[in-house]
Specification:
By secondary structure, the chain is mainly α. It has one domain. It has two helices and no strands. Helix 1 packs antiparallel against helix 2. It is rod-shaped and about 70 Å long. The relative contact order is 0.14.
Amino acid sequence: MRGAFYVIMKSVFAEFLICTLGGLPFFYIVAEKDDAPGLIIIGMTIAGIAFVIFVFASVLNRLLQDVIAIKTENDLTI
């Protein structure tokens, strides 16, 4: 189960980097040419959503590890 969360976190972090490093300059260039500052906000929103998913997956991973540790501890209690 831990492996699946690790793969999800890794892929979402890669998506965040691609959106940030590759997408935001594109949105900036298009916004400058069309004089539309709202496009930059759209690009930042796309990158921000990927970051929020990454943080959520990290929190779920840590929570799952803690729950498994507590369950193992309780299983050993008589």
